[in-house]
């Protein structure tokens, strides 16, 4: 085991693979929601608690666990989290009631924060001129994990039921833990590299508030990211229900297959990274707002056709992921010893936005159908556009 990591191509691919396999845990439930609702005999609005609790749990995990990447050795932290999420996935597979499944989802979310420990690790190892491309590569792995999760869970749910999907996920996490125990190097925490870094957990958490108050680029990037992910989550939380109702009448397998179209997001991420390396990440965010707005117009006008939804998914995934890479590249241009905590503030805000988007999407679907969901998504992008115009105009921010 090497004492100090080198950012070789193979090591970067390992980080991308680990991030993708881990983040998939957050998305397995989305295509399965109609099947879960039928199992427990509940409405679409009630079963959405599974997706919402998972995202809320993730936000809590980001707040409580990711900052530890600046305080403790990251390899040990990653392995502990993988062990915990394996147990949570097994619990979800055996949940006898919807509330217990939602509680298991919250635990899955809280312990699925490994990607957000690996992204700042990669960013800190990269030379400044290549940081955007490196972040883009790892985020591409995350995006492939997200789309694969939807495809695999839809197929597994159709073939052997939704409970089996959580057992498959647990087996994958166990295998990943064994692989990273062998290959993930030990890296010194910020506390060992920076005399000004917090040396206690309480001081570490308090420093998050200070960073949010003192870093305007962080506030801008996190707020815009939250709006993007709110619209994104409103769509994916309700897509399976849209496909399950007239005039479409498709099941979880088709809902999961739409995840394949998310490959556009994986392709957009490294392109956005190159823009970031040229010093124009915020312009890429502005372009992403326009792309996603077009996606929601398509969902509204052609949402009763497969081609209309498919075209919208291509645009929505590409725009959302390009915005995420661009916003994260902006915060990683700030001092390296802050990276884990900067990423914590960014991702907590991001997933709180996602959780609110899931709730808003489910409520809109229950009250106003697909048109209501489209109103939530497009309205969120309008707010993002106003923030973009009013935000910082510096070239690097």
TrEMBL record:
PROSITE patterns: MFS. GO terms for molecular function: transmembrane transporter activity. The chain crosses the membrane at residues 40-65, 77-95, 101-122, 134-152, 164-184, 221-241, 253-272, 284-301, 345-364, 370-391. CDD domains: MFS_NepI_like (cd17324). The keyword Zinc does not apply. Gene3D superfamilies: MFS general substrate transporter like domains. Residues 8-397 form the Major facilitator superfamily (MFS) profile domain. This is Major facilitator superfamily MFS_1. The lineage of its organism: Bacteria, Pseudomonadati, Gemmatimonadota, Gemmatimonadia, Gemmatimonadales.
């Amino acid at each position: 085991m090497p004492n100090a990591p080198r950012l070789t191509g193979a090591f970067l691919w390992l980080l991308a693979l680990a991030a993708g396999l881990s983040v998939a845990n957050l998305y397995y439930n989305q295509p399965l929601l109609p099947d879960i609702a039928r199992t427990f005999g509940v409405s679409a609005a009630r079963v959405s608690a599974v997706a919402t609790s998972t995202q809320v749990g993730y936000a809590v995990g980001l707040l409580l666990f990711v900052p530890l990447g600046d305080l403790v050795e990251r390899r040990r932290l990653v392995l502990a989290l993988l062990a915990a999420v394996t147990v949570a996935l097994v619990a979800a597979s055996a949940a006898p009631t919807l509330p217990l499944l939602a509680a298991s989802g919250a635990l899955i979310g809280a312990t699925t924060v490994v990607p957000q420990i690996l992204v700042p690790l990669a960013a800190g190892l990269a030379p400044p001129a290549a940081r955007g491309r490196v972040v883009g590569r790892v985020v591409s792995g995350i995006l492939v994990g997200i789309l694969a999760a939807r495809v695999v869970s839809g197929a597994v749910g159709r073939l052997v039921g939704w409970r089996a999907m959580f057992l498959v996920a647990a087996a994958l996490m166990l295998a990943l833990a064994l692989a990273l125990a062998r290959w993930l190097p030990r890296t010194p925490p910020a506390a060992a590299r920076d005399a000004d870094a917090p040396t206690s957990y309480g001081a570490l958490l308090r420093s998050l508030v200070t960073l949010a108050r003192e870093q305007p680029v962080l506030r801008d990037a996190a707020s815009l990211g939250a709006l993007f992910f709110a619209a994104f989550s409103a769509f994916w939380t309700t897509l399976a229900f849209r496909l399950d109702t007239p005039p479409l009448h498709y099941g979880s397998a088709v809902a999961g297959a739409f995840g394949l179209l998310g490959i556009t997001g994986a392709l957009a991420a490294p392109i956005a990274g190159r823009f970031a390396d040229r010093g124009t990440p915020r312009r890429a965010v502005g372009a992403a707002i326009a792309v996603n707005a077009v996606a929601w117009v398509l969902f509204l006008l052609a949402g009763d056709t497969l081609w209309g939804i498919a075209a919208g998914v291509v645009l929505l995934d590409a725009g959302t992921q390009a915005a995420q890479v661009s916003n994260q590249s902006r915060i990683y241009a700030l001092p390296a010893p802050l990276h884990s905590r900067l990423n914590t503030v960014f991702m907590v805000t991001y997933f709180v936005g996602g959780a609110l988007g899931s709730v808003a999407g489910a409520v809109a679907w229950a009250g106003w159908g697909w048109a209501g969901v489209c109103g939530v998504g497009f309205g969120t992008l309008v707010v993002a556009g106003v923030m973009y115009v009013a935000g910082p105009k510096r070239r690097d921010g």
